[in-house]
């Protein structure tokens, strides 16, 4: 019984670590596209990232990038306000 419990804990922990790696890989991939200068593709990738990982630790950075892409001043201000409101004290704020 103890072996089964330990095995279950190991499996759950492995899935947790694997999901973190997928999230980080997705963020790094979008950031590399951004750094390459392909802003249209980067915008799409950052939007997909937020849809797939809405509670990500990278969300403030992604919101900041998406605000930078905005052509509409009022929409950009709303995104910046969201960052300030929800991530006060972070390096992104």
Descriptive overview:
- It is a single chain.
- The chain has 93 residues and is mostly helical.
- It is 80% helix and 0% strand.
- It has helices spanning 2-36, 39-52, 59-69, 73-86.
- α1 runs antiparallel to α2 (39-52) and α2 packs antiparallel against α3 (59-69).
Topology:
Layout: H1 2-36, H2 39-52, H3 59-69, H4 73-86
Helix pairs in contact: 1-2, 2-3, 3-4
Annotation keywords:
93 residues, mainly alpha, 4 helices, 80% helix
Give the overall average pLDDT.
Answer: 81
Spatial separation of the terminal alpha carbons: 49 Å
Poorly predicted spans:
10-19
Largest sheet: none
Q: Count every helix, treating DSSP H or I runs of 4 or more residues as helices.
A: 4
Using DSSP, what is the number of strands?
A: 0
Q: Which class of secondary structure composition applies to the elements?
A: mainly alpha
Beta-strand content bin? under 5%
What shape does the CA trace take? globular
User: Topology as H/E string?
Assistant: HHHH
Radius of gyration: 17 Å
Helix content: over 70%
What's the gist of this structure?
The chain is an all-alpha fold and about 90 residues long.
